[in-house]
């Protein structure tokens, strides 16, 4: 399974490509926020084995997430559903599926761009850029991965039937 990264991620070692956005980072005291956002269209690097872990887990729950995405858009709750995923409990979105509920190893939450703006995870001034970068929600799932070594938006295609 191939995944593409949006340009809205963080890499603390490439600060000159970033501008204002608030992303949580893990610390011993919980989540804290840094203000950075990638504006170039270069995909972020992620270790292949790490991507494999996320992809393998996503496949187990993809049909349920795709239906949730459809319902969020169909009911006009938001045209930009975002699904935060984390192995630890986080306070972003509403929990859809906890760890191990469907054989999954990650917690899956349902959220939307509007919540990310409200919580200042996405800067309101960057809303147009985010919306322009957002991929077709019928084909791709917008995950917001929160892990110790990685916090980023990740577009991953839904498996074909």
Considering the chains and any ligands shown, give keywords for the structure.
alpha+beta, 8 strands, globular, 31% strand, two-stranded antiparallel ribbon, 25% helix, six-stranded mixed sheet, 3 helices
Written description of the protein model:
With 161 residues, the chain is an alpha+beta fold. It has one domain (4-157). Helices cover 25% and strands 31% of the residues. It contains 3 helices and 8 strands. The strands form 2 sheets. It has a 6-stranded mixed β-sheet with strand order 1-8-7-4-6-5. Strands 2-3 form a two-stranded antiparallel ribbon. A hairpin with a 2-residue loop joins strand 7 and strand 8. The protein is globular, with a radius of gyration of 15 Å. The protein starts with a strand and ends with a strand.
Going by helix content, strand content and strand pairing, the class is alpha+beta
Please list the strands of the largest sheet in the order they lie side by side: 1-8-7-4-6-5
Low-confidence stretches: 1-45
Residue fraction in strands: 25-35%
The total of helices stands at 3
**Radius of gyration, taken over Cα atoms and rounded to an integer in Å:** 15 Å
What is the domain tally? 1
Helix content: 10-25%
The geometry reads as: globular
Q: N-to-C terminal Cα separation, in Å?
A: 13 Å
